[in-house]
Amino acid sequence: MSGKPLIDLVHITKSFDGECVLDDLSLSVRENEFLTLLGPSGCGKTTTLRIIGGFVTPDQGQVIFDGQDITRIPPNQRNLNTVFQKYALFPHMTIEENIAFGLKISHKSDAYIRDKIQYALKLVNLEGFEKRKPTLLSGGQQQRVAIARAIVNEPKVLLLDEPLGALDLKLRQDMQYELIRLKNELGITFIYVTHDQEEALTMSDTVVVMNQGYIQQMGTPEDIYNEPENAFVADFIGDSNIIDGIMIRDELVEILGAKFACVDKGFGEYKPVDVVIRPEDVILGDPGQGTMDGVVSHIIFKGVHYEMEVQAGGFEWLVQGTKAFPVGTPVSLKVDPFNIQIMNKPESDDEKAVGVEE
Question: In this predicted structure, what is the pLDDT of residue 169?
Fold first, then answer.
């Protein structure tokens, strides 16, 4: 993706009560990018967002915004707005009064405010709702009002902290498409925090996977899913079979006693490695047709595919496919060499947390 860096986090460190939450974190966000900070609870993603927003001051490091050091500039003086999971709408105000709140503080004219309210309501598909109170709206509508209130201030950056977490699944999916549309129409930069992998993969230009205060991997959704750099990313993003293996030589790995062709090189000979195989990449067939034989031990129907567990080589393989193999069926397993991902094993707990080989 093109675009110049708009925000640079430079060697950011932050601790709370003596516990390190962010450890020497550096990150660039490009103009007009939809960047998602993804990770489990406590990984540092919300703290990172709050540092960008000015709600938290880092212990060390700098926040550079459009070439200017804003590390210690208060939130109201930064050209960005935040949408939180709790929408924080004023219940005693109408929708138009909620949306106009920031503009009135900025002493904009009544005509300007009226135009902005109409523009924002049209963008979020809430025309005609001006006089209603927030308590009369659904969760999804309240979320749209919160977004409208943020965008009328014309921020260069919109920060979104798990904004869809309180919505049901169908509404959450609808709002994902709405946010993508808004981002494209407005041409502003979105920085989004979530622990939902599907949400991150659906909406983002760039996904930043975090754990224990470190960035584990940063890339396009396709790169993150198809080419995870370590076992944490592979396990956190989607379903994976993560298996101990031995790299016999270039393009040949031993998994559970069977030799599988792969495309990876440069790991050396007879070196212990982590092997990642996605469940949709395991091909089941008749016994003797594949690289390894096993037996189906469990099956459930997921709507678009069957999810099966196959006992093979002393390991419980997760397999997804459109053809059902009943429990107890003897099968073979085969994997295309391009779908076998080989990774170095971390040599220490610190390296396991960082997820980067030295």
Answer: 78
Which of 217, 174, 232 lies closest to 199, judged by CA?
174
The more confident residue out of 178 and 332 is: 332
- Kindly state the percentage of the chain with pLDDT values over 90: 59
Its domain, for residue 323, covers 239-354
pTM of the prediction? 0.83
d(CA 21, CA 13): 8
Q: Tell me, what CATH number does 249's domain have?
A: 2.40.50.140
Tell me if 16 is assigned to some domain: yes
Do residues 220 and 247 both lie within one domain? no
pLDDT of residue 356: 41
